[in-house]
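Give me the 3D structure for DNA-directed RNA polymerase.
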Amino acid sequence: AVPLSRSEKCIVGTGLERQTALDSGVSVIAEREGKIIYTDTYKIIFSSNGDTISIPLVMYRRSNKNTCMHQKPQVQRGKCIKKGQILADGAATVGGELALGKNVLVAYMPWEGYNSEDAVL
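Predicted structure for DNA-directed RNA polymerase (121 residues):
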C-alpha cells in the first residue's frame, strides 16, 4: 500500500494509535523545550537555552519498500515548544497519531424490505 497525501485520524480506534506512531519513528519530536525561530518544508530551527538547533526534514524520499517518505512541519514560527512535543508528522501520522487512510461515512438503512438481518446495501 502507498501512503495517502491527506490521511485522516480514525474516528473509532484501539487507543494505541499515538504509541504506534511514536514507536514508528517517522514523527519528529522535540528533545528540549524552546522557541521556534524558522520553519519550512526542509527544516525546523529552534532556540533552547541560548543554543540554536536545526532539524532537517525528509521530503519525498524513497523508502526501502519503494514508497514515499516525507515529513510535514506542525509548528509555526514564534511558538514555544515543550519537550516531547510533535514538531513534524510523517506520511502516515496526523497530529502524532497513526492515520493510515480516510474515514468513510456508512449508513445502515432498509431498502424496500429486501434487506434483512445482516444485509447491507
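The two ends are 27 Å apart (CA to CA). Let me know if you want a second pass.
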